[in-house]
Specification:
Layout (H helix, E strand, L loop, with lengths): L8 E5 L3 H7 L4 H22 L3 E8 L7 H16 L4 H4 L2 E5 L7 H14 L6 E8 L1 H14 L9 H5 L12 E4 L18 E4 L9 H13 L8
Parallel strand pairs: 1-2, 1-5, 2-4, 3-4, 5-6
The structure holds 3-methylbut-3-enyl trihydrogen diphosphate (IPE) (2 copies) and magnesium ion.
One 3-methylbut-3-enyl trihydrogen diphosphate binds next to helix 1.
């Protein structure tokens, strides 16, 4: 395993919670509860193997289309997670939330702001949680920022757009892992993933464990990345 080429930035689309629950004749929310456990396990493993940055897709700009009860249950899980008092100091993790936090409840927004500022001075892995995140919204938001800042159109570069994205300052995503059997990006990090490697896996997110992550990284290290060169 030590011979692996580690991706600097991994993106994970945490998908398949609903199907996991359905298979067990349980409500979809039970799948989200189990999914939150898989998230903790996976984040832990990323720290242990020395990943520099990981982004978890937790809630998309499109996920508001779901029944209100399901959306509320997901928001409650975020809130519980933030209440847990993470051991981010010991682990030295920098926690960030990417996406438009504006429509979230005030209490949730406060907790997010607190965890973000409490961990901003840490020096370890950067863990982004994408909440109300959409890749198109990310680009739109960046362009609006540039215009508000009075940018001269001729001076706009790929880098200046990148600096206005929610992921500003972080390396582009190298590896995107999508469990659940779906093979699509669903509006996740579309700008940042221009040269990402994709690994689609036939496992539902609540069943995702350290072995799945290791095997995705092994698959990544076998890929020949050319970035348009030869
Ligand atoms: C991912 O699991 C969780 C969120 C999108 C919030 P899903 O809820 O999409 O699970 P499936 O795709 O219906 O199985
Ligand atoms: C993508 O999953 C979003 C998250 C995992 C947060 P979805 O379940 O929303 O994606 P689609 O609808 O299958 O494309
Ligand atoms: Mg899904």
């Amino acid at each position: 395993m030590d011979e692996r080429i580690l991706p600097r930035h991994i993106g994970i689309i945490m998908d398949g919670n609903g199907r996991w629950a359905k298979k067990r004749l349980m409500p979809r929310t039970a799948g989200h509860v189990q999914g939150a456990k898989a998230f903790r396990k996976c984040m832990r493993h990323c720290i242990d193997i020395g990943i520099e940055c990981v982004t978890f897709y937790a809630f998309s700009t499109e996920n508001w289309k779901r029944p209100k009860e399901e959306v509320n249950a997901i928001m409650k899980l975020f809130s519980d997670y933030l209440d847990e008092g993470l051991d981010t100091e010991k682990d030295d993790v920098v926690m960030r939330f990417i996406g438009d936090m504006e429509p979230l409840d005030d209490s949730l927004k406060k907790k997010i702001a607190k965890l973000t500022s409490d961990t901003a001075g840490n020096h370890g892995m950067v863990c982004n949680i994408a909440v109300n995140y959409g890749g198109r919204d990310d680009i739109l938001h960046a362009v609006k920022q540039l215009i508000k800042d009075g940018a001269d159109p001729d001076s706009i570069t790929e880098d200046s757009i990148g600096e206005k994205l929610y992921t500003a300052g972080l390396p582009d995503v190298d590896l995107i892992i999508r469990p659940s059997g779906e093979q699509r990006i669903s509006n996740f990090l579309i700008w940042q993933a221009a040269y990402a490697e994709y690994v689609f896996m036939d496992v539902l997110w609540p069943d995702f464990n350290e072995k799945h992550l290791d095997s995705a990284i092994e698959e990544f290290s076998r890929r020949n990345r050319r970035f348009g060169g030869v």
